[in-house]
């Protein structure tokens, strides 16, 4: 990537900003989340959001602004995790113990797979697609929303509905 003279003040300002706030932000997030990789992700996401904003207004209290933005980011993440956790909470057929592979266990696994496939086929097509994209293809909610042209909230509702249906169907068997 090449940079022009016009880009230099922006790059140096960003470097100074990162140098000033990276440590305090890491400390702020580390006190509030459990995993180190979450701290790194949150710091990166916050910087990305700040730099992607189109606002050119001067911030009178940058310390207050950045930590309020950090707090808002945490609230948003917890709110999303709560919704997602509720949607995917302890679906027993997605948890595997360290069991011995025996002919009986193989047969049981095949039966569970058949029941799962049957339960998935009972879902409305869009709900099934959303669930499969997230759970089996690894797409994030935002990616699914963009791909099928719905809101992230709609994706969350489809996931929750699918999880409820599958949980009920798999428990009945």
Tell me the structural class. mainly alpha
> Over all CA atoms, what is the radius of gyration?
22 Å
Q: How big a fraction of the residues is strand?
A: under 5%
Total count of helical runs of at least 4 residues:
7
Based on CA inertia axes, which overall geometry fits?
elongated
Poorly predicted ranges = 1-8
**Separation of termini?**
57 Å
What composes the largest sheet?
A: none
What is the count of β-strands? 0
Q: Tell me the series of helices and strands, N- to C-terminal.
A: HHHHHHH
Helical content band: over 70%
Question: How would you state the average pLDDT, rounded?
Answer: 80
Describe this structure in words.
The chain has 173 residues and is mainly alpha-helical. Helices cover 73% and strands 0% of the residues. The chain has helices spanning 8-30, 36-52, 62-88, 103-122, 125-135, 141-148, 152-172. The longest helix has 27 residues, at 62-88. The protein is elongated, with a radius of gyration of 22 Å. Residues 1-8 have low confidence and may be disordered.
Spell out the blueprint of helices and strands.
Blueprint: H1 8-30, H2 36-52, H3 62-88, H4 103-122, H5 125-135, H6 141-148, H7 152-172
List keywords for this structure.
about 170 residues, about 0% strand, disordered N terminus
Summarize, please:
With about 170 residues, the protein is mainly alpha-helical. The protein is built from seven helices and no strands. Residues about 1-10 have low confidence and may be disordered.
């Amino acid at each position: 990537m090449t940079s022009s003279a016009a880009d230099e003040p922006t790059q140096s300002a960003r470097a100074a900003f990162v140098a000033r706030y990276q440590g305090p932000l890491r400390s702020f997030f580390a006190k509030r989340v459990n995993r180190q990789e979450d701290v790194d992700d949150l710091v990166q996401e916050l910087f990305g959001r700040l730099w992607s904003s189109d606002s050119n207004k001067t911030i009178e209290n940058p310390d207050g602004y950045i930590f309020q933005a950090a707090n808002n980011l945490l609230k948003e993440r917890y709110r999303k995790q709560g919704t997602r956790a509720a949607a995917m909470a302890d679906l027993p057929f997605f948890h595997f113990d360290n069991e011995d592979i025996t002919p009986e266990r193989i047969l049981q696994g095949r039966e569970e797979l058949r029941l799962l496939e049957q339960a998935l086929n009972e879902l409305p097509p869009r709900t099934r697609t959303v669930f499969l994209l997230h759970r089996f293809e690894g797409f994030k909610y935002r990616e699914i929303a963009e791909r099928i042209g719905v809101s992230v909230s709609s994706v969350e509702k489809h996931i929750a509905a699918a999880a409820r249906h599958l949980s009920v169907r798999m428990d009945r068997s």
